[in-house]
Design brief:
five-stranded mixed sheet, 17 strands, Alpha-Beta Plaits, alpha/beta, 448 residues, globular, Molybdenum Cofactor Biosythetic Enzyme, Chain A, six-stranded mixed sheet, Maf protein
Length: 448
């Protein structure tokens, strides 16, 4: 063998003698390394069909898409499309045809209730050619729930016991409409009830288990959700990625609604080690954004406020003009509200609110002028009428030149009087939701 040039790289003899085998091993090693770096392929593609004419009219936002995609993504679910459609047979059939052409799994929300426009059950039966029949188990459950024999149940209630045959159903722990599973062996169409209080527990408790059996999606791993208020989604994301030191295998999803932002951190395996890793991430995020985090997990802002009032043995009264009853409606979602909310008044103007709050009082004819004096008088009258320790008053929205309309919020608590302005920067519905969030967040901070 000739002399090797000075400075040349020394190549082991076994490589030169077995070059094809070495190349195969090298390429295999590169492939393994890339596979370890690349995220796992989704276990299943799916399409969402969200029904409801109210969505298309702008009455309600579509929260189902955000919840379902956020819940299924860490398990390997990949949403290829989401479409909203009216409660009309022809529209729903067209949407189903389009969705089924994109994915082997179609998830439909809404239209399973007892009213005439709840057409999802019959339309899916027509689309899949799978009949629906009454299920004994669901009939018996309705008998227990309403305390009536089945022949006494209203026809529209019994209709909700009709499920695909062959096929299956998903139990509904919070309502009368079961989820439906239409499965012809080639494709699967799952129908979920529309109300979030029914849909979300059904997804977590029933749908995930079905998808694991039918499509092999990963079981739920370790997850941790931080709930933020008073800061935008992009600002939170930037702070988390700069300060949270996120490992590459942590899956992060976020959801924004009504001035509140949820960030969920997930790892594929449920273990004590992964729980500790997520807790360490949460601690680092809290060190930077702690004041903006109002809860972890599923605890709502309303529950935080009601809990804070209850722990301090404080009662609350509301006098709502600009918030239009939104505060009372929002707080009523929290358990224990009956122990802390002692009164709520709603009126279209401060003058009418004064007459409501001061009715029957000796000074009811002495209405103050507009502005802060009138808000103070309303708060005083509401406290006298209800005996509440804390009173919140919201004024009507006032528009100033060059600025968005704003509501003045007043809080009478602990012998102090505080006011602040909340600008309504969005549409009427979104602006009111943000107003409610800002008032509740202020109460949360005052209660600490």
């Amino acid at each position: 063998m000739g002399r090797m040039r000075a400075g040349a790289h020394m190549v082991p003899n076994w490589i030169t003698m077995n070059l094809p085998l070495f190349l195969i091993m090298l390429l295999g090693a590169v492939g393994i390394a890339r596979a370890a770096e690349a995220p796992a392929e989704p276990a299943v593609d799916y399409a969402l069909v969200v029904t409801g004419g109210e969505l298309l009219q702008g009455v309600y936002p579509d929260s189902h898409t955000a919840f379902i995609t956020r819940t299924l993504a860490p398990l390997g679910g990949h949403c290829v499309l989401s479409v909203s459609v009216d409660d009309r047979r022809e529209d729903l059939l067209r949407a189903l045809g389009f969705a089924a052409a994109q994915a082997p799994l179609v998830i439909v929300t809404g239209g399973l209730g007892p009213t005439p426009n709840d057409i999802t059950r019959e339309t899916l039966s027509e689309f899949t050619a799978i009949p629906v029949e009454e299920r004994e188990e669901l009939l018996a459950d309705l008998e227990r729930r309403f305390g009536q024999k089945r022949d006494q149940l209203r026809a529209n209630l019994r209709r909700q016991t009709r499920v695909p045959t062959p096929g299956g159903f998903l139990k509904n722990a919070y309502g009368t409409a079961a989820g439906l599973v239409f499965d012809d062996g080639r494709r699967v169409v799952v129908a979920l009830p529309g109300p979030p209080r029914e849909l979300q527990p059904m997804v977590r408790g029933e749908l995930l288990a079905f998808l694991q059996r039918r499509f092999g999606v990963r079981p739920p791993g370790s997850t941790l959700t931080l709930r933020f208020v008073g800061l935008g989604q992009s600002a939170i994301d930037q702070a988390i990625r700069e300060q949270g030191q996120l490992p590459p295998d942590v899956f992060v999803t976020s959801l924004f609604e009504g001035g509140r932002v949820d960030f969920t951190f997930s790892l594929p395996q449920n273990s004590a080690t992964n729980e500790a890793r997520l807790r360490a991430i949460a601690d680092r995020v809290r060190a930077v954004l702690g004041d903006r985090i109002y809860a972890e997990g599923d605890t709502s802002l309303e529950e935080v406020v009601v809990g804070g009032l209850a722990r301090g043995n404080r009662t609350l009264a509301l006098a709502e003009v600009g918030s239009g009853g939104g505060l009372a409606a929002s707080l009523h979602r929290a358990a224990g509200i009956d122990r802390v909310l002692v009164g709520a008044l709603v009126a279209p103007s401060e003058q009418q609110m004064w007459r409501l709050a001061a009715s029957g009082a000796a000074e009811s004819t002495n209405q103050p002028d507009a502005g802060e004096a009138l808000l103070r008088a309303i708060a005083t009258a509401a406290r006298r009428k209800t005996g509440a320790a804390w009173v919140v008053v919201t004024s009507h929205a006032v528009a100033e030149t060059g600025r968005p309309p704003a509501v003045t919020v007043a809080l009478a608590a602990n012998g102090e009087w505080k006011t602040w302005r909340v600008e309504l920067r969005d549409s009427a519905e979104a602006g009111r939701a943000n107003l409610v969030t800002e008032v509740l967040d202020r109460l949360r901070r005052e209660l600490r």
